Amino acid sequence: MNNGSYPWYLSWPVIIIAFLFFWPAAIVLIYLRTQSTKGGAFAAASNKKVYMILGGILILFGLTRFKSSIPMALFMIVGGAAIIYYANTLAKKASRNKSYIDLLVNQGETSIDKVANMLNVRYDVALKELKTMKSLGILKGATIDEQSRSVSITRVQNAAGEISGMVNSVTGALIGSASTAAASGAAETVEGACPGCGAKYTGPKGSTVTCSYCDATFVLH
Fold first, then answer.
1. Integer Cα distance of 23 and 3 in angstroms
2. Which of 19, 30, 106 shows the shortest CA–CA distance to 60?
């Protein structure tokens, strides 16, 4: 996900400046970045190293300030440690979000209790995170039933099956050629996983897919 997908104030340059001058604002910006788009809910895992490096830099700056200003030094050191801790927390949450997609979308699991058990989290934590994913539009169309402690997602089949209606960007030429090939019994259908969230799709080889869960665009190979 590039900076063009985010408002200017959530771009990397702004976040880096906030890190250096007022780290609490940087944490707020990172949180907003992870909540501003579907893809942001999955990107923290891949961005973990960046956040940890920036946190480490802030700690180093703090150590160099001890002689001139102990309060400022402590402020930076605490901030760097807080950012590193927060980066780990966000990365774990992003990883769980991918696991939710795998269990609910690819494997067709419906029991929130089973999902929570597989991810080693409490039921209330899993329920809260699933509700957050729904509010972000990641699990659009999902039905969360707290009485039966279950969740269902429209049009989801098993991991090897086609998720109907998801291949949104296949060109007319590809559709036409795939139909012709299918008619002659020579169609090549492939399965691929979204690089953003891990949702699995099947379709004609070479077709372009826009993921309904994280909005990532990729080609089926």
1. 20
2. 19
Residue type, 83: I
Q: Are residues 191 and 157 in contact, defined by beta-carbon separation less than 8 angstroms?
A: no
* pTM of the predicted model as reported, rounded to 2 decimal places: 0.72
| Mean pLDDT rounded to a whole number for the chain | 81
Do the beta carbons of residue 30 and residue 15 sit within 8 Å? yes
pLDDT tens digits, one per residue of 41-63: 888 777 788 888 888 988 998 89
Residue 162 pLDDT more than 70? no
Element (H, E) at 25: helix 23-36
Q: Token pair for residue 37?
A: 């788009």
Residues near 66 by Cβ (< 8 Å), separated by ≥ 6? 73
- The residue type found at 106 is N
Count H helices, E strands: the chain? 7, 6
Tens-digit pLDDT profile for residues 74-115? 988 998 898 889 888 888 989 999 999 999 999 999 999 999
In this structure, what token pair is assigned to residue 106?
Answer: 């690819």
How distant, in Å, are the alpha carbons of 14, 16, 50, 72, 170 from that of 53? Answer: 16, 11, 5, 20, 40
